[in-house]
Design goal:
151 residues, alpha+beta, 3 helices, 6 strands, 36% helix
């Protein structure tokens, strides 16, 4: 059994949308240009005018990696997968979900000069290593944009 993801459990879609909204807010307040549910032109077939099957980016961050746009795909998982079969490993659900998202979307993003970041989190609040790196970079931007007011 694989990891249970946002679309598969009641309440997960709400959590996904909440995390996406908060994350988008953080980016905007930090002065980082981003758009929620952004349609990305390479995810559609221009000859047929239809989608290639890939959803819009949950968040598209403009000019993030040396001027290159970043497609952020949020995925929430439950870390309790494998408890019944005695195969439970801490962090396994996040790792599997992240690898699956990379396999599914990264190639299309790279071929179209975009960076792909799978933003995978679990219901207990754990974050995938790529998410932690991305958030540290956001923190650096916030710190660089913050001026200290002398009292």
């Amino acid at each position: 059994m694989g990891s249970m993801q946002c679309k598969e459990l009641p309440g997960f879609k709400y959590r996904h949308d909440l995390v996406r909204g908060v994350f988008h807010d953080v980016l905007k307040r930090a002065g980082i240009s981003a758009k929620k549910e952004a349609l990305v032109n390479f995810l559609t077939d221009p000859l047929e005018g239809r989608s290639t099957g890939l959803p819009p980016a949950d968040i598209l961050v403009f000019g993030w990696e040396e001027g290159i746009h970043v497609c952020v795909d949020l995925t929430g998982v439950t870390p309790l997968v494998g408890l019944r079969d005695h195969r439970f490993v801490v962090g396994q659900a996040i790792t599997k979900a992240e690898a699956g998202k990379v396999a599914k979307h990264e190639k299309a993003c790279i071929e179209n000069q975009h960076v792909f970041v799978p933003f995978v989190f679990d219901t207990f609040g754990a974050l995938a290593p790529n998410v932690v790196r991305f958030l540290k970079r956001v923190q650096q931007v916030v710190s660089g944009n913050t001026t200290h007011v002398k009292g």
